[in-house]
Design brief:
Strand 5 and strand 6 form a beta hairpin. Strands 3-2-1-4-5-6 form a 6-stranded mixed β-sheet. It is an alpha/beta fold. It starts with a strand and ends with a helix. It is globular. Helix 2 runs parallel beside helix 4. The chain contains 8 helices and 6 strands. Helix content is 43%, strand content 12%. The longest helix is centred in the N-terminal third of the chain and has 17 residues.
């Protein structure tokens, strides 16, 4: 039986769960919004039932600054305040995860995606088939034949599994290593990272076809 490790990007999935139900919120009898708890739990249950993981962990960000914050003061500076419903959901979600006997991993100075990337590469060397459970496009730089992105279903859609072929097709590039170049040239509005002025996804892909790196 293959060893299948699923690594969940907690906050990416919490936000996704919360906003997926924003038009039809799950409200308790005391008026509390439980979108995040409900959606996140459903994601875990779906994974356990349908994907048959042998190993699993959920990775969280911490409040401690990372190297990105010290190197670039405006990193994520344009982010809106996290909704109170999400902040109040996090302790519940951690209890749910622990109740399911799934490890919770968080390391000061590193974001969840740093931790997931490191664990994925370590596990690959140990013979694991690794699935990084996230909707975050930045993970494309980490995929290999044994490491894939698992995008959970969203609003009634189907889940997606992205390996090297799918990632290269998505970005119109020749190899996974070019994801770093393409994101660097484009920049990232979500994280407030400036790219090259006038260079979007298509221009970046065209430049990589011409120069390779």
């Amino acid at each position: 039986m293959p060893k299948k490790l699923f690594l969940l990007d907690a906050f990416a999935l919490v936000f996704r769960a919360y906003y997926a139900l924003i038009r039809n919120p799950r409200i308790t009898s005391k008026g509390r919004n439980t979108n995040a708890q409900f959606g996140f739990t459903n994601t875990i249950i779906e994974l356990i039932k349908n994907q048959n993981p042998t190993h699993m962990a959920v990775c969280f960000d911490t409040h401690a600054p990372t190297e990105r914050h010290t190197d670039f003061a405006d990193y994520k500076a344009n982010r809106q305040e996290t909704p109170e419903d999400i902040l109040s959901a996090v302790p519940d979600i951690k209890r749910i995860i622990e109740g399911l006997n799934i490890p919770v991993i968080a390391i000061d100075g590193y974001e969840a995606d740093d931790v997931i990337g490191a664990l994925a590469k370590m596990a690959e060397k140990e013979g694991y088939e690794v699935y990084m459970v996230t909707p975050d496009k930045d993970y494309g730089q980490l995929v290999s034949e044994n490491i894939k992105i698992y995008k959970p279903p969203y609003q009634g859609g189907k889940f997606e599994i992205l390996g090297p072929k799918e990632v290269c097709e998505k970005w119109d590039i020749e190899k996974v290593e070019q994801v770093i170049d393409i994101l660097g040239m484009m920049g990232d509005a979500v994280d407030n990272i400036p790219g090259i002025k006038g260079v979007g996804e298509k221009t970046a892909a065209k430049l990589l076809k011409e120069y390779g790196t």
